[in-house]
């Protein structure tokens, strides 16, 4: 964790984010194709790397976590005190959590919106890292929601969505995030990493926080943030 934190601090200074306070969330794909990433420790490392971001500018230094396939689970937040073995302990060994099914991104996105805009509204921005390994739901789900619809709906809210594609699958819907019309402000970004285990911390954090400062500026200009 210490090395992760040092790398985060360098990037935060580079992007002039040292004074920013925000709520930080991580959404983890747990569809069938993600099984190897859970088994080999990759997802645990992702949790630790994103927790390092939360430790630096989250309002309570805790990382809120969701997992999803065609259902979703809102998990206990993780901190520097209890991050070790979090994935095995809280996800893989928990039989109440739906695992390794098909994907339905809008379902978990709707719950994230509910938490941060209805249940626990705040003047602070919320930074959401959304991990996906492809096969994104292209149309609407049973509730009539789609990824695009929810991105548009949340563009007036203090939420920024950073989607991260891992592997070499098709991320068609996510690759088109920057061209979604009808948004109040540009509130989402996407990048793809073929092997998240081999990318350096410095490079990962630089990409994760690349568009967040731009969103912060626009959100303040347009009154989304105070």
Describe this protein's structure.
This protein is of the alpha/beta class. It has helices at 2-14, 35-39, 42-57, 86-92, 105-119, 147-153, 172-175, 201-208, 212-221; strands at 22-29, 58-68, 72-78, 126-132, 159-166, 188-193. A six-stranded mixed beta sheet has the order 3-2-1-4-5-6. The chain is globular. It starts with a helix and ends in a 5-residue tail after the last helix.
Low-confidence stretches: none
Structural class: alpha/beta
Tell me the series of helices and strands, N- to C-terminal.
HEHHEEHHEHEHEHH
What's the overall average pLDDT, rounded?
A: 94
Query: What's the Cα radius of gyration?
Result: 16 Å
Oligomer: single chain
Write the layout of secondary structure elements.
Elements: H1 2-14, E1 22-29, H2 35-39, H3 42-57, E2 58-68, E3 72-78, H4 86-92, H5 105-119, E4 126-132, H6 147-153, E5 159-166, H7 172-175, E6 188-193, H8 201-208, H9 212-221
Parallel strand pairs: 1-2, 1-4, 4-5, 5-6
Antiparallel strand pairs: 2-3
Helix pairs in contact: 1-3, 1-8
What is the gist of this entry?
It contains nine helices and six strands.
């Amino acid at each position: 964790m210490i090395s992760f934190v040092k790398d985060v601090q360098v990037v935060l200074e580079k992007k002039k984010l040292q004074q920013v306070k925000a709520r930080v969330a991580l959404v983890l794909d747990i569809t069938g194709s993600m099984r190897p990433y859970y088994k080999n420790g990759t997802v645990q490392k992702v949790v630790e790397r994103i927790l390092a971001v939360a430790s630096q500018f989250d309002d309570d230094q805790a990382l809120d976590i969701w997992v999803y396939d065609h259902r979703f689970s809102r998990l206990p937040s993780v901190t520097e005190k209890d991050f070790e073995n979090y994935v095995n302990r809280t996800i893989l060994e928990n039989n109440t959590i739906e695992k390794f099914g098909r994907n339905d991104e809008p379902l978990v996105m709707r719950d994230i919106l509910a938490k941060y805009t209805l249940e626990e509204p705040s003047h602070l921005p919320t930074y959401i890292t959304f991990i996906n390994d492809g096969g994104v739901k292209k149309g609407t789900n049973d509730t009539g929601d789609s990824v695009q619809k929810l991105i548009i709906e949340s563009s007036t809210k203090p939420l920024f969505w950073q989607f991260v594609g891992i592997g070499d699958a098709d991320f068609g819907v996510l690759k088109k995030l920057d061209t979604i019309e009808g948004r109040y402000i540009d509130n989402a970004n996407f990048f793809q990493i073929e092997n998240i285990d081999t990318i350096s911390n410095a490079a990962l954090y630089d990409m994760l926080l690349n568009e967040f400062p731009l969103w912060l500026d626009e959100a303040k200009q347009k009154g989304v943030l105070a």
